[in-house]
Specification:
Strands 3-2-1-4-5-6-7-8 form an eight-stranded mixed beta sheet, sandwiched between helices. The protein has one domain: NAD(P)-binding Rossmann-like Domain (Rossmann fold, 3-Layer(aba) Sandwich), CATH 3.40.50.720. By secondary structure, the chain is an alpha/beta fold. It is globular and about 70 Å long. The two termini are 41 Å apart. The longest helix is centred in the middle third of the chain and has 29 residues. It is built from ten helices and eight strands. Helix 4 links the parallel strand 4 and strand 5.
């Protein structure tokens, strides 16, 4: 897939998934702006891309503030003449159960993930609308935002909000030919290794230099960071024109489309519902369709 002539900004791209995204975009021909809070990581990513024949520059700054978002867009325009793709990938975690989570734990995660996505997408949308040639906003979400996850009040809320952004902005930016989609990746990263159920699998794979087992790549839909990049390149390309407002999952051998929230059961009561009438009807009515929650933890085929 050819991205020659396109310019992409990827936040949080000095390492992990973000680093894989900029490598893949550059290989496909795009010029990329690398962003990270770690100047050494950002510089290393830029050097890697340039040494491989690609075009890259960097902005070292934490996302969240409007100033950083504007600096990222300005760098794309000044260095490469335009902006076609904004990928909001930067993130942090501050995992604690609800009763132990501090205001700072909550605010820090919301600032980077949710506010950072908002400010960067807004700055990108302004630039893309001025250019008048469309573009793509690729917002990185998580299964935690789709299903909830123990100890991740802040992270799950932010990632759920990011999918809501995609649906809303797809409505607002459609006339400008700007596609907006949320990506729900699952990959073996340093962040993923903080999840006890996944850590042993990832560490064994790294220790042996072997891929994750097939039951993990298919059943859990988790593989390497490179396994996620095909979707990123596709959504950055003209081939994906018309695909917008979606939450698309990828990881390992699995590609999926997440459903949007919808009513799964309903019933009516003439004159409305009292607490007693809800209690009487619940078990034999809408209560039969109660939904599951939480990310399913991996279980090997033998368990």
């Amino acid at each position: 897939m050819d991205l020659t002539g396109k310019v992409a900004v990827v936040t949080g791209s000095g390492r992990g998934l973000g680093r894989a995204y900029v490598r893949a975009l550059a290989r496909a021909g795009a010029a990329v702006v690398v962003n990270d809070v770690d100047s050494a990581a950002a510089e290393e990513a830029v050097k890697e891309i340039i040494s491989s024949g690609g075009s890259a520059s960097s902005v070292v700054s934490a996302v969240g503030d409007t100033e950083t978002a504007q600096a990222l867009v300005a760098e794309a325009v000044e260095a490469f003449g335009r902006l076609d793709v904004m990928i909001t990938n930067a993130g942090i975690i501050r995992d604690k159960v609800l009763w132990k989570m501090s205001d700072e734990d909550f605010d820090d995660v919301i600032r980077v993930h949710l506010r950072g996505t908002f400010t960067c997408a807004r700055a990108a949308a302004i630039q893309m609308r001025e250019q008048g040639t469309g573009g793509s906003l690729i917002l990185i979400s998580s299964p935690a935002g789709q299903r909830g996850n123990f100890g991740q009040t802040n992270y799950a809320a932010a990632k759920a909000g990011i999918v809501a952004f995609a649906r809303t902005w797809a409505l607002e930016l459609g006339k400008s030919n700007i596609m907006v989609n949320a990506v729900v990746p699952v990959a073996a990263t340093e962040m993923t290794k903080t999840i006890p159920a996944f850590a042993p699998l990832i560490e064994e794979s790294e220790r042996n230099g072997t891929p994750l087992p097939e039951w993990v790549r298919k059943g859990e839909g988790m593989g390497s960071v490179e396994d996620v990049t095909g979707l990123i390149v596709f959504l950055a390309s003209d081939t994906s024109a018309g695909i917008t407002g979606q939450a698309i999952g990828i990881g390992g051998d699995k590609l999926s489309l997440w459903s949007h929230p919808s009513e799964v059961a309903l019933e009516y009561s003439n004159g409305g519902w009292s607490a007693d009438s809800i209690a009487a009807a619940w078990g034999g009515g809408v209560g039969k369709a109660t939904q599951t929650y939480g990310i399913p933890m991996p279980a090997s085929p033998g368990n």
